[in-house]
Amino acid sequence: MYDTIIIGSGPAGMTAALYAARSNLKTALIEQGAPGGQMNNTLDIENYPGFDLITGPELSMKMHEPLEKMGVENLYGIVTGIEDKGDHKLVKTADTTYETKTVIVATGAKHRLLGAPGEATYTSRGVSYCAVCDGAFFRGQDLLVVGGGDSAVEEALFLTRFASSVTIIHRRDELRAQKVLQDRAFANDKIKFIWDSVVKEIKGSDIKVDSVLVENVKTGELSEHAFGGVFIYVGLDPVSGMVDGLGITDEQGWIVTDELMRTVVPGIFAIGDVRQKHLRQITTAVGDGAIAGQQAYQYIVEHG
Ligand code: FAD
Ligand code: NAP
Asked: Residue of the nearest CA to atom 4 in ligand 2?
């Protein structure tokens, strides 16, 4: 029987593990891939206090390194379900069921699909959701980035390292991204914009993307533009399928908690991007993790 099982070793889960282990809880951290979560797909992080600039993989390593020394058990697996048994919980993977007094869900969020014709056909053949992973394959090409948030603008800036030009297409005439990113994009000669417009279709040959059909949402005008690659950043969906049936999410699947990271099921906590919240960042994920690690300890003190 564990005191706490944390699902997901992104920044939220790793911080919760640190705080739980420092409270001497028997702590396990279950992860399906490499520790770090979304940070592994981020090259430069410039807004994590204490570092002017650090790469995502390096920050992931720095957060993960101390955990084993603190006594955290790192388990590999894809969690498929959580069962509430009152005084204890079951955490299930394909081949193992773990028993624990508390669960902290830190499974994060994943990129949303655009839903345009051609998107699925050309995924990995010119359509990508990860500039850090795929950018270098598009050296010297004209690229399209879809979206107007932090991810779209930051990744467009990153892609200018390889591409001849990067065009950002946004459905409105104003970006959602942080001002500092907007200023950098507007000042970059390689970045162009198509405003008030959406992608109607991604077109190509058998093997790769060639062009994109664009609709201006104000005028209805259609136009076709040549692009060698399309990078899609239209927001996030929660990774919360494993809590289905517990009644702890809103209609979109974000897990609802109070400010102590408690869900409506006693002993089950949720932290980081998977939580219904306003600002999804590494700093806020880390803050959530600290609170939940401490709250798991408090729960066990009160409930035994
Ligand atoms: P995640 O980082 O999403 O980690 C969740 C973990 O849970 C993953 O490792 C996943 O494999 C695991 N998991 C999921 N389901 C299961 C399961 N069923 N079983 C086992 N394991 C599971 N924020 C900043 O502050 N600064 C930035 O510069 C910045 N840049 C970004 C750039 C991009 C392109 C993106 C997409 C995001 C960026 N963010 C940035 C946001 C930041 O990365 C996230 O807010 C943060 O990583 C959320 O942490 P998390 O621990 O909640 O979730
Ligand atoms: P986001 O902030 O939700 O932005 C999504 C963007 O896509 C918005 O501009 C939205 O338009 C647009 N969009 C949504 N659906 C669309 C559709 N169907 N067609 C066309 N456009 C569509 O998502 P994100 O940029 O991925 O960021 C996610 C989180 O990670 C945020 O909390 C962000 O702050 C964080 N993040 C932080 C950093 C950083 O700190 N450097 C970097 C990356 C991400 P509207 O604007 O019209 O809604």
From this structure: 149
pTM given for the model: 0.90
Distance 193 CA to ligand 2 centre (A): 16
Q: Please tell me the distance between residue 13's alpha carbon and the centre of ligand 1 in angstroms.
A: 10
Q: 279 CA to middle of ligand 1, Å?
A: 13
Q: How far apart are the first and last CA of the chain?
A: 12
What would the pLDDT profile of 151-197 be if each residue is shown by its tens digit?
999 999 999 999 999 999 999 999 999 999 999 999 999 999 999 99
Q: What is the Cα–Cα distance from 277 to 286, expressed in whole angstroms?
A: 14
Residue 130 CB partners (closer than 8 Å, separation 6+): 41
Q: Write down the residue that tokens 């060698």 correspond to.
A: 228
Active site residue 133: yes
Closest listed ligand to the CA of 115: 2
pLDDT tens track for 215-244: 999 999 999 999 999 999 999 999 999 999
Residue 113's contacts (CB-CB under 8 Å, 6 or more residues apart) are 119, 232, 234
CA distances from 21 to 50, 127, 294 (A): 23, 42, 10
Residue 210 has pLDDT above 80, yes or no: yes
Among 84, 134, 142, 196, the one annotated catalytic? 134
What is the number of other CB atoms lying within 10 angstroms of the CB of residue 83?
Answer: 13
8 lines ligand 1 (CB under 6 A): yes
Q: Which residue in the list 44, 87, 133, 237 is annotated as catalytic?
A: 133
* Cα 108 from Cα 104, distance rounded (Å): 12
Known active-site residue 244: no
**In 3-state terms, what secondary structure has residue 291?**
helix
